[in-house]
TrEMBL record:
Organism: Mycetocola reblochoni
Official protein name in the record: Peptide chain release factor 1
A Gene Ontology molecular function term of the record: translation release factor activity, codon specific
Protein family according to the UniProt entry: Belongs to the prokaryotic/mitochondrial release factor family.
Keyword set includes Protein biosynthesis: yes
Keyword Metal-binding: no
Pfam families: PCRF (PF03462), RF-1 (PF00472)
PTM field: Methylated by PrmC. Methylation increases the termination efficiency of RF1.
Protein function: Peptide chain release factor 1 directs the termination of translation in response to the peptide chain termination codons UAG and UAA.
Gene Ontology cellular component list: cytoplasm
UniProt-annotated location(s): Cytoplasm
Gene: prfA
InterPro entries found in the cross-reference section: PCRF, Pep_chain_release_fac_I, Pep_chain_release_fac_I_sf, Prokaryotic/Mito_RF, RF-1
Length: 359
């Protein structure tokens, strides 16, 4: 069992040698990729060593028990530990998403429900920022379009990890958040105390590590500059610092006005454009491949309703995994781990089932 691990152990040793080579670290992009792969394989190697060591201990215990029954009590304990270690290793050997170690760009957009939807967009942004803080990640507000009542028509935030372990990467956790988030509560503008249902959309893109990863022909870009505006359309800047970039072949449009500098807005817009183009390329490749690497939980349909936030009942429910809890107040303060873990587990179960069907 686990014969294929020997190949991964050899690769792990080779990567360890590469990391000791100063030349590798002169290329930041290459060093980042090597570190991510090494961290991923380190978990597999450690799990394999644990399973292998327990297997050797069990064999020794059986030999000793044949001579002295006092050792027989260790056998069922070791067998249980081996089963646990075997399952942990099996899950680590599930084909991983190669983007798991990437940072992300998240966009939250108001949907059905008007002002209430935009207010909830602001609540979701705070929720994700608190969650990022709990993980030790950094957040950077790239762009926001505020509504008259203090919410957001559209807000974009970059979320970055300082680690190299893909399992702890931002994309590994937040890729499941894309879709429609439904909120049920009494809006602040409701005088009769009636519960309203609104929706807010969330898009999540893996961020491009290096610009060279996504080939963009400058002749394919239409770049417009204009003056920034605030709620109600009033001008908030006296210079043409806002930037709108249109990628002509795909029709993707990115606008930025958060910074006072046109150069900074242009750089931020290019970051978002590269992330969107990378996501588009990956979706096209997945759709074209016969063995499409599509997550059973991370839907490609951005219009799918994935979660309901019911404030009167203090209830949070994920419609993909069946997760339900009555601690919405904690969730809105960033306690997202159980919900995201339910998505990760459901995704792994689906992948394991697929492996079993193809075995």
């Amino acid at each position: 069992m686990f014969e294929s691990v020997s190949v991964l152990i050899d690769e792990h040793a080779q990567l360890q040698e590469l990391l000791a080579d100063p030349a590798v670290h002169q290329d930041a992009a290459r060093a980042r990729k090597v570190n991510r792969r090494y961290a991923e394989l380190s978990r597999i190697v450690a799990a394999y060593q644990r399973w292998s060591g327990l297997t050797d201990d069990l064999e020794a215990a059986r030999e000793l028990a044949a001579e002295d029954e006092a050792f027989a009590a260790e056998i069922p304990v070791l067998e249980a530990s081996i089963a646990e270690a075997q399952e942990a290793l099996r899950r680590l050997l599930i084909p991983r998403d190669p983007d798991d170690g990437r940072d992300v760009i998240m966009e939250i957009k108001g949907g059905e429900g008007g002002a209430e939807s935009m207010l909830f967009a602001a609540d979701l942004l705070r929720m994700y920022i608190h969650y990022a803080e709990s993980k030790g990640w950094k957040t950077e507000l790239l762009e926001r379009t505020e509504s008259d009542l203090g919410g957001y028509k559209d807000v974009q935030v970059a979320i970055k990890s300082s680690g190299s372990d893909p399992a702890q990467g931002v994309w590994a956790h937040l890729k499941y958040e894309g879709g429609v988030h439904r909120v049920q509560r009494v809006p602040a503008t409701e005088s009769q105390g009636r519960i309203h249902t609104s929706t807010t959309g969330v898009l999540v893109f893996p961020e491009v590590d290096e610009p060279e990863e996504v080939d963009i022909n400058q002749n394919d870009l239409k770049i417009d500059v204009y003056r920034s505006s605030g709620p109600g359309g009033q001008s908030v800047n006296t210079t043409d610092s806002a930037v709108r970039i249109t990628h002509l072949p795909t029709g993707i449009v990115v606008s930025m006005q958060n910074e006072k500098s046109q150069l900074q807005n242009r750089e931020a817009a290019m970051r978002v454009l590269r992330a969107r183009l990378l996501a588009r390329q990956q979706e096209e490749q997945a759709a074209a491949a016969s063995d499409a690497r599509r997550s059973q939980i991370r839907t490609m349909d951005r219009s799918e309703r994935i979660r309901t936030y019911n404030f009167p009942e203090n209830r949070i429910a994920d419609h993909r995994t069946g997760y339900k809890a009555y601690n919405l107040d904690h969730v809105m303060n960033g306690a997202l781990d159980p919900i995201i873990e339910s998505a990760i587990t459901a995704d792994e179960e689906a992948r394991l089932a697929e492996i079993g069907d193809n075995a």
